[in-house]
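Now for our target.
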Amino acid sequence: MRSVLVARPVWPVLKSLAEGLVSRGYFVERSGSWDALFDARAAGEDLAAAFLGEYGEIDAEEEILRRFREGEGGKGVPVFLVGGKNALRWERRFREAGADQVFSADLAAADILERARPLHVLGDMYRNALEDNRELRGNSLVDELTGLPNRRHFTEELERNVEMARRIGRPLSCIVTDIDDIRGVNEMYGFPVGDNVIRQFGRILKGGKRRCDTVARLGGDQFVWLLVGADASQAVRAAWRVHRRISENVFDGAHAPVRVTATWGVSSVLPGEESPERLLLEYADRALYWGKESGKNMVRCYPPGKVAVDG
């Protein structure tokens, strides 16, 4: 349900406005201050419009309007002022600060709502467009097969967490893994079964991560796991823990049970280390292929000998 903010209802007509908006199906949020524009709920995606009672402190009111318009929550939200002679006198200043229309408090509520309706409708359309764009962007960051974040999403998370790790001085680790011999599964059972195994593999991997971590599908049967605040030893233990779950799990192959194993590559950056954080994924990938060349079905850490990797 779309919400409308009615703030500082010092004029009786604003109370009637609120009742009219409720009858039109809007949730009306009432507040004694214009600062409610910045509240979490008011600034959210569901805010359809704001009706503000002008109270004579124009400098403060202008500042609030400008701040609201400059913020993310103020984009596309119609703002209407209702006041006395002072509001009409300073209408130009209010409009320049971000108000869309200024109404006299002597008008009837029905008249104000009717005059505000075109911008109100446009505001709804604009916010709907924003939500559609967010949904499209969200879809572009999700892997279609597994529902996990995709490579693009992971790249954004990696950049953000690398910068955060640098700023606050915490370790950051990365695990790259893929299924051993997924080609054999596809050849024996068919690609739909192979896709189902990949989907279940991703589900197990997601179930093994912490809330602060990110698990994504890079493509094919390869996945990546970013561990926030975990050093190499902790990341290796996490890899072995999920490795055992994969080895013990019986995957649904439609007509026959399927068992698979996986190989895991781990890399880590500690606070103050000289290793470039941008190579975190590349180093984990090297460890993965080192594990493949060593016989698969194991955990390896880059550089070799950095930590004990026995499970």
